[in-house]
Write a structure and sequence with these properties.
With about 325 residues, the chain is an alpha+beta fold. Among the domains are: about 50-160; about 225-325. About 50% of the residues lie in helices and about 25% in strands. It contains four helices and ten strands; from the N terminus they run H-H-H-H-E-E-E-E-E-E-E-E-E-E. A four-stranded antiparallel beta sheet has the order 3-4-5-6, with no helix packed on it. A four-stranded antiparallel beta sheet has the order 7-8-9-10, with no helix packed on it. Strand 1 (about 200-205) and strand 2 form a beta hairpin. Helix 2 (about 50-100) runs antiparallel to helix 3. The longest helix is centred in the middle third of the chain and has 53 residues, at about 110-160. The chain is flat and about 90 Å long. The chain starts with a helix and ends with a strand. It is found in: Secreted. It comes from Mugilogobius chulae. InterPro entries: Olfac-like_dom, Olfactomedin-like_domain. It holds the Pfam family OLF. This is Olfactomedin-like domain-containing protein.
């Protein structure tokens, strides 16, 4: 029994010393020779972002911007000089014309003065030519730098922008510009005293594919006097407020004939406020979104379309009657 315990104790001591030896060797291998320190190996990814390239692009952009500012300053300076000398050329032309007509009325001093002014203009022309050549060289250098910068940015984007973040941002900017243009166009059409409309309503046909304006029809009715409007088979109907409970269809404009007329069709609006009017040719009803209610009106027209014309069954030359349904 004692022999067995002694053997186990000796075995445990041997294993312990063996582990210490392995740890000591590892410490010596990964650290200092005396085993007092430990070093770690760091493995970096192979695709390291080239920040130097991006910094170089940024510095190039600043240099290009600075050089452009200098060239723009030169152009502004020469524009002022050209304006001044253009006036001188006009005066010189008038003097030369007078000399050709009446050469005896001018002395040699007058002729010398004209020669001096002509030489000044010639000097300006030579200066402009030299400046244009210099600017051409600068712009060519800028073009090369911009081409290299664009190539570098494209390479960085294709390599590191796997989620197409930059492409999405560019598309967003383009969409934002298109929306601003649409908003501006909307303001020109509907808001008073803007551009050529001068507050008058304009009917526009929208291309469904491109969402651009195909054709426009100006009207004589002023937008501030219109509370709402709706279209029926190419005819614009404008609505105005009579009192707190009554609206009136008072104006119509036919885009086919470009004729306009005034009508008098009052109807109740059910609530004090409403946001939209829309005519549905399928059921021949006028729908109103009215302060939480969905209101429909039956419309009857006093003339039907000819059979050969490809239009809905109801022609809208005049609204005859309106009845109301509340949904």
């Amino acid at each position: 029994m004692i022999g067995t315990l002694y053997f186990l104790a000796l075995l445990g001591s041997t294993l312990a010393w063996g582990r210490v030896d392995v740890w000591s060797e590892a410490a010596t291998r990964n650290g200092t020779e005396d085993g007092g320190g430990c070093t770690c190996d760091a493995f970096l990814p192979s695709a390291v972002f080239p920040i130097k390239d991006l910094v170089l692009v940024e510095e190039t952009a600043k240099e290009i911007s600075h050089e452009l500012d200098l060239e723009i300053g030169k152009l502004e300076e020469f524009e002022m000089k050209m304006t001044i000398y253009a006036e001188k050329i006009v005066k010189l032309t008038a003097k030369v014309t007078l000399i050709e007509k009446n050469p005896d009325d001018f002395s040699d001093a007058d002729l010398e003065e004209i020669k001096v002014e002509i030489k000044q203009v010639e000097a300006l022309i030579e200066e402009l030519q030299i400046s244009i050549k210099s600017s051409t060289t600068v712009f060519e250098s800028l073009r090369v730098q911009i081409t290299i910068m664009i190539s570098t940015l494209d390479k960085l984007e294709k390599t590191y922008d796997k989620n197409l973040v930059l492409a999405t941002r560019r598309e967003y900017i383009e969409i934002q510009l298109q929306l601003e243009e649409c908003e501006k166009r909307h303001q020109e059409i509907f808001n008073p005293n803007i551009d050529s409309t001068k507050g008058k309503m304009v009917v526009a046909k929208i291309n469904e594919a491109s969402f651009g304006i195909e054709e426009e029809w100006p009207t004589s009715v002023y937008k501030p006097g219109v509370s709402n409007a709706f279209m029926v088979c190419g005819v614009l109907y404008a609505v105005k407020t009579i009192d707190i409970h009554t609206e009136e269809i008072f104006y119509m404009f036919d885009t086919k004939t470009k004729k306009e007329s005034y009508v008098n069709v009052p109807f109740e609006r059910f609530q004090d406020k409403y946001s939209n009017l829309d005519y549905n040719p399928t059921d021949q009803k006028l729908y109103m979104y009215n302060d939480g209610y969905y209101v429909s009106y039956h419309l009857w027209f006093n003339q039907t379309a000819p059979a050969e014309v490809k239009l809905p069954a109801v022609q809208n030359e005049n609204v005859q009657n309106v009845t109301e349904n509340v949904m």
